Amino acid sequence: MSVFITGASSGIGAACAKAFAAIGHDLVLVARRADRLEVLATELKAQYRVGVETFVLDVRKRKDVELLVSENLPTFKKVEILLNNAGLAKGLSTSQAGDPDEWDLMIDTNIKGLLYVSRAIFPLLIERGGGHVINMGSVAGRWSYPKGNVYCATKAAIKVLSESMRVDLHGTGVRVTEVAPGMVETEFAEVRFSGDKKQAKQVYQGLTPLSADDIAEIVIWCAKRPAHVNIQEVVVFPTAQSSVHLVDRKTS
Ligand code: NDP
Ligand code: 8X3
Q1: What is the reported pLDDT for 145?
Q2: What mean pLDDT, rounded, does the chain reach?
Q3: What is the pLDDT averaged over residues 165-185?
Q4: Class for domain 2-236, per CATH?
Q5: How many whole angstroms separate alpha carbon 140 and alpha carbon 110?
Q6: Residue ranges of domains in the chain
Q7: Nearest 5 degrees, angle CA 166-CA 168-CA 173?
Q8: How far is the CA of 81 from the centre of ligand 2 (A)?
Q9: In the predicted model, what is the mean pLDDT of residues 25-49?
């Protein structure tokens, strides 16, 4: 039995990999950065004595996703939990001024990538008679914030797809959970602002954001409920964030 995590090279995905390894699960980890995956795999194998397989994968590339699974069937047939976590935001701008290349990147990664991976794995979960799909949504998918438009829309799609997947998988024994966090301090903001660390730091200035470990704890809790219990959605904000654009920042 193993856990398949997309976007495991950083942030929430890496924290979830550690948390699952700590309770003895074997892992299949994918992302685009091979070096990051290797460092993490070496650490987890040494510390927790679990099996860890890593593959370089860009979830936007449909053929690569299909080939990865079909060429490594013994590995993927052991997957019982799929954590669809790979995702990103790029830029912040209005719909009238946004960059369509950034829109494509978010839509291709956050929606289409998640669908490609799900399409490849679901038949295997059905065949084994059960499993768990955990999709990383966001509060941005429930409440839109200024200049968030396309990112918010991709995360709204994850909410709707999670509902749809539950319906599609009805009667198969496969559970579907959406975890929708507010501000989590990871590399997310740095990616959004194309490597501008100063701008990224400002996102979390004056508040205590959620950590990737906070989210991993929630993911593990959802996964560890008895098989007849399906946590459909978890929405979690930092205490300092009452809504998507109401953030209590302390100035010192
Ligand atoms: P990070 O930037 O730290 O991690 C993002 C992960 O996604 C990386 O491992 C990255 O790996 C991977 N990734 C991005 N694009 C691709 C791709 N095309 N193919 C494969 N992997 C990819 O951010 P977070 O950990 O914060 O983000 C994880 C998820 O959580 C995302 O879906 C995000 O939308 C969601 N989220 C984040 C919140 C936050 O405030 N941080 C709040 C709510 C939701 P690599 O670059 O190596 O490919
Ligand atoms: C990430 C949370 O509010 O920065 O999904 O968009 S937010």
Answers
A1: 96
A2: 98
A3: 98
A4: alpha beta
A5: 13
A6: 2-236
A7: 60
A8: 24
A9: 98
Q: What are phi and psi of 183, to 5 degrees?
A: -70, 120
pLDDT digits (tens, 9 = 90+) for 113-136: 999 999 999 999 999 999 999 999
Q: Are 136 and 12 a contacting pair, CB within 8 Å?
A: yes
Residue 156 Cα to ligand 2 middle (Å): 12
Mean pLDDT of 124-150: 98
Please report the atom of ligand 2 found closest to the CA of residue 182. Answer: 2
Q: Does residue 244's CB lie within 6 angstroms of at least one atom of ligand 2?
A: yes
Predicted confidence at residue 252, as pLDDT, reads: 67
The pLDDT of residue 1 is: 85
Residue 112 CB–ligand 1 contact under 6 Å: no
> What per-residue confidence (pLDDT) applies to 251?
85
| Atom 41 of ligand 1, nearest CA residue | 184
Tell me which residue has its CA closest to atom 5 in ligand 2. Answer: 138
Residue appearing with tokens 């510390």? 47
Q: How far apart (Å, rounded) are the C-alpha atoms in residues 69 and 54?
A: 13
Atom of ligand 2 nearest to the CA of 244: 3
C-beta 177 within 6 A of ligand 2? no
